[in-house]
Amino acid sequence: MISVFFSYSHEDEQLRNQLEQQLAILKRQNVIATWHDRRITAGEVIDHAISSNLEMANIILLLVSPAFLASDYCYDREMQRAMERHEAGEAIAIPVILRPCDWHGTPFGKLLATPTDGKPVTQWADRDQAFLEVTKAIRAAAAKLGPQQRELPAHTFSPMQSRSQSLAAPASRSSNLRLAQTFTERDKDHFKVETFDFIARYFEGSLEELQARNPGIEGTFRRVDANRFNAVIYRGGKALTRCTVFMGGGFMNGIAYTANETSESNSFNENLSVEADDQMLHLKSMGMSFRGGAGEKLSQEGAAELYWGMLIQPLQSR
To answer: Which end of the chain has fewer CB within 10 Å, C or N?
Structure first.
């Protein structure tokens, strides 16, 4: 069975949990067994347990984020050793890009990252799809390692391995260890402000690119204040579509979209509210627009793309 080691920052534990859920089918099919530092039991020497499992892993997942790059333990110890084993042909290191960060200049920047094109998981409209792409990459890597790696059951070692390695092997246990997360009102408010700022940057960048790619098209972006921005798209000087995106106001207290420039907050064409399940915060639209699926869990990028689609739709239907 293929041994998979998670190298990650604890700041990304929720994302690691979601990835491990997607990998459940590979574990049920006895393709892989996974290990991370939450499997360390009382009485074990932490550094020794991590080092031993890193040395025994066939596949090492580098869960890349700003926190991962900032962690001396993740970057200087786990990642460096993972790359040494990868280059020696002893294991396969796979960069999994969780959150946007400057990872291309790192030692693992030369490796093919996952999800597709190294697009960060948090920037996918559907995170399940992102983690499915990661799962497919891991399945392919496991197949590449060949059947000889599967002849040994999980945590079984050859006589050539040292006694210390055998003693360090974790006991078999369930991978169903996920606990429900709770989110405070402060968490939700912070996520809403962070999402609004993300949508504003998304619109500004998209308008610039739209203008660069299409002669005769001009896009303008204006940040009115911390809670509101306007966007307009012109063709030949004529305004074809306008919008205002604002935070708060009215009775919904979410992030609203209205198809005109306005300073009012009492009406809108769509509204996004901040919701939480037992693992993560997400956005949910009211489904007022033809593009908005009510009840769908949206990431920040999914929310931004929903509103951008509403702005650009009049140009695409002409």
So the answer is: C
Query: What average pLDDT does the segment 128-155 reach?
Result: 76
Buried b (16+ CB within 10 A) or exposed e, 271-296: bbbbbeeebbbbbbbbeebeebeeee
- The proportion of the chain whose per-residue pLDDT surpasses 90, expressed as a percent, equals 57
- Least-confidence region, from 73-82, 247-256, 275-284: 247-256
Q: What is the pLDDT of residues 272-310, one digit of tens each?
A: 999 988 778 888 888 876 655 556 788 888 888 899 999
CA-based nearest residue to 2, from 34, 40, 28: 34
Cα–Cα distance for residue pair 297/274, rounded to 1 Å: 10
**Strand, coil or helix: what is 46?**
helix
What pLDDT does 295 receive? Answer: 63
- CATH of 2-168, picked from 3.30.930.10, 3.50.50.60, 3.40.50.2000, 3.40.50.10140, is 3.40.50.10140
CB 186 within 8 A of CB 67: no
Place of tokens 């991590």: 50
Among 145, 103, 97, 101, smallest CA distance to 121 is for: 97
Residue 56 has pLDDT above 50, yes or no: yes
Q: What is the pLDDT of residue 278?
A: 78
- Dist CA 229 CA 135 (whole Å): 38
Contact 161, 167 (CB under 8 A): no
- Distance (Å, rounded) from C-alpha 308 to C-alpha 272? 13
HSE at residue 270, side-chain half, CA atoms within 13 A, is: 25
Distance CA 300, CA 124 (A): 8
Helix 46-56 vs helix 80-87: crossing angle, to nearest 10:
20
Q: Are strands 217-225 and 228-235 parallel, antiparallel or unpaired?
A: antiparallel
